[in-house]
Every structure is written in C-alpha cells, then in structure tokens.
C-alpha cells in the first residue's frame, strides 16, 4: 500500500467511515435494495402519527390505480407527492395512507413507515403494513423489478422484526369491497409466500 493510501485509510478509520453505520430506518443505507426515505422524496410532515404495535400479522398489497405507472425515479417521486397531496389535502388524512410504496423503477419509497398506523385498509390499519405498487394493474403486471422490490421489502420487514414471521399476505380486495390491487396483480400475489386465501 502506498504511503498516501495509508494516510487516507487511517483518516477513514478515525472518522468511523470504515465501519458499518448503526441501523436507522429513516435513511437509505439501512436497506440492501434501492430505498428512498420520506426526506429523500420530499414528503410533507404528517399531521399526527399513531404508534403501530409490532410485529404486525398482516401485509396488505395495493395498487395506486391513479397515479399510473412510473418507470423513472423522478416520475415515482412525483407520484409519491401526488398521493400525499391527495390523501392529506383532499381527503383530510394525517398523511399518505400507505406504509410503503414501490415504483416501477424498482425503488421502495417510505410512506408512513414501519412504526405508524396507516390508512390503507379499513379495519386492518392497526395490525398491518400496507404496500402499494404504483400503477394500474387491472389487466397487466408490474415490471419484474417492481414485484421483486416488494418481496424484498416484506422479507426485510420480517428480518427486522416489524412483520411477524407467520404473517398473512392479503390483497386489499380481501378485506375491503374494492377491485384493488387489480386483477393481474392479485393473481400474481396468490403465488407469493404466505398468501392467505381469505375473504371478508
């Protein structure tokens, strides 16, 4: 190793940059997949938050329908802001309704996060994580990278202890009269681990 390289290494060690940072779910380095925190996509602060009791026994999958699919990160950031505006400013909710969103760019976007009760499935908000795939998936599937990102998010939630290891995976239509998450996406999630054949 050259002398100047040794000096750089010593400086990094002294600053702590050579060691893993402690887990912090509010920043993207906590995840081993593309992730954007609320601050990353420019979320407005919530009106209020209610603590979610963890681990939750349910994961509920949604599609946004509107906004439609996003394929670039800029488009997906705009979709997140649009959803938050709709939920907060027009529907009067405390925040964006979903715990997390997944874009067609393969990035997971933090909504209410792991710790806060969502507003995505009436009757199940206090015991579930709600994950919305951005787009309209009535007749076509999301791209594979979007599906894979959602699966990785669920696995991370289990690993971190936020989702119960014996959780039940549901589509929104199984707990609320709605077509969500769209016929194509619903058929897809019936093949995922822990999908539960359950109806109201």
UniProtKB/TrEMBL annotation:
Q: What is this protein called?
A: Peptidoglycan-recognition protein
Question: Which Pfam families does the entry link to?
Answer: Amidase_2
What SMART domains does this protein map onto? Ami_2 (SM00644), PGRP (SM00701)
Cite the InterPro entries for this sequence: Amidase/PGRP_sf, Amidase_domain, Peptidoglycan_recognition, PGRP, PGRP_domain_met/bac
Q: Which residues form the Peptidoglycan recognition protein family domain?
A: 33-176
Q: List the disulfide bonds.
A: 70-76
Any GO BP: innate immune response
Q: Tell me which UniProt keywords the record has, alphabetically.
A: Disulfide bond, Immunity, Innate immunity, Signal
Which region is the signal sequence? 1-18
Q: What domain of life?
A: Eukaryota
UniProt lists the family membership as follows: Belongs to the N-acetylmuramoyl-L-alanine amidase 2 family.
N-acetylmuramoyl-L-alanine amidase domain ranges (all copies): 45-182
Record's keyword annotation contains Disulfide bond? yes
Which molecular-function annotation in GO is an example for this chain? Answer: peptidoglycan binding
This chain's source organism reads: Papilio xuthus
- Subunit structure of this chain's protein: Monomer.
**TM region positions:** none
């Amino acid at each position: 190793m050259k002398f100047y390289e040794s000096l750089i290494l010593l400086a990094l060690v002294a600053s702590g940059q050579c060691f893993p940072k402690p887990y912090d779910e509010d920043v993207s380095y906590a995840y081993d997949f593309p992730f954007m925190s609320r601050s990353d996509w420019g979320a407005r602060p919530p009106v209020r938050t209610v603590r979610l009791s963890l681990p939750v026994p349910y994961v509920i999958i949604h599609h946004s329908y509107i906004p439609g699919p996003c394929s670039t990160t800029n488009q997906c950031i705009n979709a997140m802001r649009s959803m938050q505006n709709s939920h907060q400013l027009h529907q009067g909710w405390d925040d964006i309704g979903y715990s997390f969103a997944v874009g067609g760019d393969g990035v997971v976007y933090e909504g209410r996060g792991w710790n806060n009760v969502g507003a995505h499935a009436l009757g199940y908000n206090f015991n579930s994580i709600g994950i919305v795939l951005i787009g309209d998936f009535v007749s076509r599937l999301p791209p594979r990278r979007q599906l894979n990102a959602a699966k990785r998010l669920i696995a991370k939630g289990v690993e971190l202890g936020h989702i119960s290891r014996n959780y039940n995976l549901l589509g929104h239509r199984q707990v609320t009269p709605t077509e969500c998450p769209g016929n194509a996406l619903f058929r897809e999630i019936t093949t995922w681990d822990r999908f539960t054949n359950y109806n109201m």
